C-alpha cells in the first residue's frame, strides 16, 4: 500500500506540468517549446538514473534505498515550489525525476520478486493503476489547482503526500530484496549518461533549432557513439553495469520495443492535448484537465482488468487490442477541426487511455517473466529507462512537429494553422501505433503469457 501511495504522488508529477505549462511559461517568461522540457527533461533524467537503479537495488538495503528515493523526490518538490526561474525549476524537476526513478524501479522489482507467476499480472495491474492512471489524471487535477490557486499548488499537494509517505515507510517498510557487494563501474555509468542523454537532448532540440543545428547534431552524434561504446562494454566485461544480454530473449526484446513505442506516443499526446484545449481552442486549464478526466477513469477500470486478462489469456490479444485502440484514437484526432467539440476529443482520449491500460503493465510483466530471477532488476531498469527516454523524445518530437507545421502553414490555413499542425502530429502518432499493431500481429506468439521465472 505504501508503494502505491508513493507511486501515485511521484508519477503524477511526470505529466502534471502539461496542463500547467502555459501559465508556468508565462510566469517564467519562456516559450512553450522551452517549457516542454519541464516534462521531457524530467523523463530524460529518469531515463539516465534508471541504469543506476539496477546497481543500487543490488547494493543497498531495500528500506534505505526506498527512503532515499522519497527524500530526493521531496527535495525536488521544495526546489520547484519556490522557483522563480526556469533553471531553478528545471533543477527541481531533475531531482524529482531521480527520486521517482528509484521509487519506480524498486517498486517493480519488489512486486515481480515476491509474488508467484500466476498472480504477477493481477498485482502489476493494480500497480499499473497507480503509476499508469496517476500521470493521466494529473492534468485534470493540475488544471483545477492552477485555476483555483496557482501552479505552485501542484508541488505543494505532492509534497504533503510524500511527507506522509516518508513517515509511514519509516515504520512499515522492510528489507525484502537480497543485496551483495558489487563494484561500481564509473566508466559505464558515465557512458550511459552521455548515451541516453545525448540522444534525447539532440532529438529534443530539433523542434527548436532545426535538424542541422550544432545543438542537435553534436549531442545526437555523441549519444549514438557512446551508446555503441556502452553496449560493447556491457557485453564484454565480466560484471556488467547493466546486463544487456537479456535482450537476447525474444519476448523481453519485444516488450522493450513495444513499451518504447507506447511511451513515445503516450507522452507526446499527453503534452499535445492540453496545448490543443488551451492554446488552440482557448479554454481554461480546468477545462483542459476535465477533457482528460474520462480517460483517466477508463484507465482506472481497465488496468487491473488487463492484469487479470493477461494471467488468463496471455499477451497477444491484449497487445492487438491496445494497439488497435491507439490507432483509432489518434486517427480520430487527425480529423478534428476548429468546429469540433472538445467532447469528441475527450472521447478519443478515452480510447487512447484504454489502449494504454491494456499495454503498459502487461508488457513489463510479460517481458520480465522471460529473464532470470537474478536479472529482474536489470530487466526492469533497462525497460523503464528506454521507455522513459522514448517518452521524452516523443514529447519533444511531437511538440516540434506541431509547432513547425503550424508556423509554416499560417499563410495557407490562417487561424486554422494550429489545428492543422495538431492534425498532422496525430497522423504521425498513428503511424507509430500502426507499427505497434504490426509487432502484435506478426511477432508475438499466440498464447504468449508469463512463464515461470528461472534462477
From TrEMBL:
One of its GO terms (molecular function) is transmembrane transporter activity. This is DHA2 family efflux MFS transporter permease subunit. It is a multi-pass membrane protein. Its main location: membrane. It holds the Pfam family MFS_1. The keyword ATP-binding does not apply. It is found in: Cell membrane. GO terms for cellular component: plasma membrane. SUPFAM superfamilies: MFS general substrate transporter. The lineage of its organism: Bacteria, Bacillati, Bacillota, Clostridia, Lachnospirales. PROSITE patterns: MFS. It comes from Mediterraneibacter hominis. Residues 1-448 form the Major facilitator superfamily (MFS) profile domain. NCBIfam families: efflux_EmrB. The chain crosses the membrane at residues 36-57, 64-82, 94-114, 126-145, 151-172, 184-203, 209-232, 252-277, 283-306, 318-336, 342-364, 385-406, 418-444. Residues 1-25 form the signal peptide. InterPro entries: EmrB-like, MFS, MFS_dom, MFS_trans_sf. Keywords: Cell membrane, Membrane, Signal, Transmembrane, Transmembrane helix, Transport.
